[in-house]
Amino acid sequence: MTATKSSQSCAPPLLRGGALDFGTPPEQNSRMRLVSFCLLLGLGACAGPPQVSTGQSVTAEAHEVFLVRHAEKQTGDNPSLTEAGHARAETLAQRLADTGLTHIHSTNYNRTLETAAPIAGLTGLPVVLYDPTDLDAFAEQLLAMPGVHLVVGHSNTTPALASALGGDPGTPIDEASEYDRLYVLQIDQDTATGRIERFGDRYQAPVPD
Question: Using CA atoms, how far apart are residues 67 and 86, in angstroms rounded to an integer?
Fold first, then answer.
């Protein structure tokens, strides 16, 4: 409850049961006697009890999870991103800049950490590592942690995590060339609903022979 009152008051409100209690408004004749008394004392603001307005209910904290595979990578053991991959990581940062991001999660690989780096730099958020070999436990952690999360993973772990969160994993990610899939999941009481978006240079599925 939000209380709005004049700059001076005759008596402070009482605190009862964890809420401000301003009492029952006086009858008209009592109010007039109070006004007269306050005027004699030079306290013209004491014309009556403070007004009480009922505020709107507080909106629950957002609970949203973005899932993305790392951007285009080079070859080799634990490769870094290619030039195109770094450009896509920047595009991802632009896409998520106004989402109110509160957490960034990544596996401990160059390609995922480099994909998360631009949005981490933009928001000032730390990149927290997670274990991609135990997605069920990680999903439980995400479900229990309200906020707006970005999770950077891999072609095989990203759809699996979407499923573990209760969302639709969609078709398998094409490991060779699909880097633009973005899961957008809203969490409501441990239930995930959402959609799959595309960002950056669009992936074109190979045409069957």
Answer: 18
pLDDT digits (tens, 9 = 90+) for 5-40: 333 433 333 333 333 333 444 444 444 444 444 444
Domain match, 67 and 15 both: no
Q: Looking at the structure, tell me whether residues 162 and 92 fall in a common domain.
A: yes
Does residue 48 sit in the same domain as residue 109? no
- What backbone torsions phi and psi does residue 183 show, to the nearest 5 degrees? -85, 135
Q: Looking at the structure, do residues 165 and 124 belong to the same domain, yes or no?
A: yes
pTM for the model stands at 0.70
Please give the residue range of the domain that contains residue 170: 63-198
